[in-house]
Amino acid sequence: MGTAPVSACCHSEDPAASVLGMERELARERTLLRRRLAVAAVLTGLVMLASLPHMLGGVHLSWLPPWFTSPWSQMLLSSPVLFWCGREFFTGAAAAFRRHSADMNTLVAAGTGIAWLASLVATLFPGVLTAEGLPADVYYETAAVILTLVLLGRLLEARARGQTSEAIRRLLQLQPPTARVIRDGVASSIPVSTVVVGDLLQVRPGEKLPLDGVVEEGSSWVEEAMLTGEPTPVAKGPGDPVIGASMNRSGSFTFRVTRVGGDTVLARIVELVRQAQSSRTQVQRLADQVVGWFVPVVIAIAIAAYVLWFLFSGNGVLAMLFLVSVLVIACPCALGLATPTAIMVASGKGAENGLIFRSAEALETAGQLRTIVLDKTGTLTRGLPEVTDFERLPGGVLPDLTLLALVAAVEDRSEHPLAEAIVAYAHRRGADVDPPAVEAFEARAGRGLQASVDGKEVRVGSPRWLAEAGMDTTDLDPLVDRLERAARSVAVVVVDGLIEACFGIADPIKPEARSAVAALRRLGLEVVLLSGDARRTAELVGAEVGIVRVIAEVRPGDKATVVRQLQEQRTGPVAMVGDGVNDAPALAQADVGLAMGTGTDVAIAASDITLLSGHLGGVPAAIELSRRTMATIRQNLFFAFAYNVAGIPIAAGLLFPLTGWLLSPMLAGAAMAFSSVSVVTNALRLRRFRPTPLPMEVPA
Amino acid sequence: MIPFLAAAPLWRTIPQPPAVQVLVAVGGVALIAAELWWFLGRHGSGVAAAEGEQGVQEITITVEGGYSPSRIRAKAGRPLRLRFHRTDPSGCVAQVIFPDFHRSLELPLGATTSIELLPDHPGVYPFHCGMNMVRGSLEVE
């Protein structure tokens, strides 16, 4: 993904305040619109009643008094509709006109204003029209109906737009308003905004965590699903990080606050979502350009329609109706709203599922992916090696636990991931953890460790090392071969020159890996496995999760190069999925970089999409959501373009010579009002998005 | 269908003297030309942001039926502070979005709110309201 041409200065304001402020603003606008619409609807109803005889073709209705149906009363009734209920269309149009711009207000104000003015002329000087052989008809009801419909459209649209930010609002509401703080040994309930970093907070069963921190005392299971999409509760004990807005299940604990205000994970998620909502897609750039010249062109078409109809019929009133129809049917709003509303809903929906899109472009590109590269360690696997096999050899003499205690004592000196796995295994088996005296410790790179423990000579290392040392490995060889065939790293234990046991160590594959890969392939993507391991090991992992294309033996620094080569070989964009820390250059090189988060770490900068839970199911879900979003945007843009391209010529009277149809300006106004509403409503359908569940059983 | 169609007497054609026809045609074409020139033509160049303290470029933009000024010139590589003063009650302009910067700003009514951007590279960066109807641009040189 290309980097933004410009960088934004950093800031860490609390997004809650500005989002809620925006909400209030929208609510205020809706109340205002509702009031004006109510007044407009009543008055417009009266105007329509007054114009009923005229609309029915000049029939006389005895139950309507003549003073009520007179042009003067219609003028009096319709004027407040235009100039009070709809005054912002006129002031907005005037302000825009002064700065050489034209927008929606211009079209509404011009359309209704012209109909109203023409009627005023007919009311004041009916003789002018009758002298021409025209009836001195008035179209006050047309102006009033159009304006009322546009107001109705605005209200519906404002309501729908309020719903597009629903997901963000729901995220913000996750944070409880108060926290139980323990200061000087006394617990008290205080507003969250007054909590400071370093405060000790108490959480009871069933409560939400107010802020981020580190568990101090006690333990519990915590549900982070609402933030990360991680479906299973996470165990938390002293020293574990916890995130605000997650839900405490059964236990009680206290935690030390590490982040408040705009720095919390929740605030950062909201901020990232808002940043994405403030960006735009490539397709939107086209629509933006069209919107720029749309209104002036529509005005030109309206004037041309007037001139042509006047030349054709000589009937100035008829020509005026065509002019008004063209002005009020055109809807630049639908074009302008097509993309942003869909992006708003989709990025919010993503956040609900633990998928953070950094920009609209990320959504757009992820929807077009053809190739996806999965890093092995930390992405397909847990990223932490575990002992999977502990095999004793026939010649071994020591009991298991004694042996494990000896080995753990030696391995404890090393920070190698395999050593940590062995120590963890020894603890798990219940080996005596009191470290016996270790002397003459020696680490040999790529070989293993050796030391003297309790007077015993202990060696833990690779089978190769033993062979080099000239040991007899006849019994060992078939075992090592079997383990290596199963993609295990093997560590052999030798005590006092006797081969006692060997460990098979592997980085376990995430349980959902196979079904997530199947889901990606079902989406039509070519899945590539990228690994630093030996070819055989990588291919075994590939076979286990169902990936055919395996690129092995890639050093960490070369991952970006591999991604670039794939970009050159493949058509369509290439995505890279990694842990975001070691793979940063590869993530940045890919057209879309997806970083697997760890729940508490939202600040994964190199990625275009962050999967907060680290659950692989998020990858197909993100691609699915992107595709749905892009489909919605395409539908919206198609509808908006098609509506205008078809509607304007019809309003201009193109069909009249062929079919004798003439679109009434009122119907044109209704079409316009509902075209923008339907665009927003279509975008809102994305709220129902649910990722397809991963396939349960995947045949090998 | 009646309410959707214009009333019957309107269908009639009325012979107009050629002079009137020519007048309407010429007037219409002139109006189109004037309107297109007014809305689409270039009218003056953008307003340059002023030099503020510590090398920050500053400009105040009034939000009233549009952005005034709507074309802002600024220099690349230096922070640019835009102060938006919103007097327009329309909810549409309550938010201003800078898509290239991935930033947005809420503008409370009757108040001045500012945003600081760092334009690194020369170019034209549009900004617009939440509904994309009111528009302006930053011309960074």
Concise account of the structure shown:
The complex is a heterodimer of chains A (700) and B (141). Chain A is of the alpha+beta class and 700 residues long.
**Chain pair with largest interface:** A-B, 88 and 70 residues
CATH homologous superfamily title of the largest domain in chain B: Cupredoxins -  blue copper proteins
Question: How helix-rich are the residues of chain A, as a percent range?
Answer: 40-55%
Strand order of the largest sheet of chain B: 1-5-11-10-7-8
Largest sheet of chain B: 6 strands, mixed
Key features?
heterodimer, A: 700 residues, alpha+beta, seven-stranded mixed β-sheet, B: 141 residues, alpha/beta, disordered N terminus
Helix and strand layout, with pairings?
The complex is a heterodimer of chains A (700) and B (141).
Chain A: E1 7-8, H1 15-50, H2 52-55, H3 66-69, H4 71-85, H5 87-98, H6 104-124, H7 126-131, H8 140-164, H9 166-172, E2 178-183, E3 186-191, E4 200-203, E5 212-218, E6 220-223, H10 225-228, E7 234-236, E8 241-242, E9 247-248, E10 253-259, H11 265-277, H12 282-313, H13 316-329, H14 332-352, E11 355-357, H15 360-366, E12 371-375, H16 376-380, E13 386-392, H17 400-411, H18 417-429, E14 438-444, E15 448-453, E16 456-461, H19 463-468, H20 476-485, E17 489-495, E18 498-506, H21 513-522, E19 526-530, H22 535-545, E20 549-551, H23 559-569, E21 574-578, H24 584-589, E22 592-596, E23 609-611, H25 618-651, H26 656-659, H27 665-684
Parallel strand pairs in A: 12-19, 12-21, 19-20, 21-22, 22-23
Antiparallel strand pairs in A: 2-3, 2-4, 4-10, 5-8, 5-10, 6-7, 6-9, 11-23, 13-18, 14-15, 15-16, 16-17, 17-18
Chain B: H1 18-40, E1 47-48, E2 50-51, E3 57-63, E4 67-68, E5 71-74, E6 80-86, E7 95-98, E8 103-106, E9 112-118, E10 123-129, E11 135-140
Parallel strand pairs in B: 1-5, 3-6, 5-11
Antiparallel strand pairs in B: 2-3, 3-4, 6-9, 7-8, 7-10, 10-11
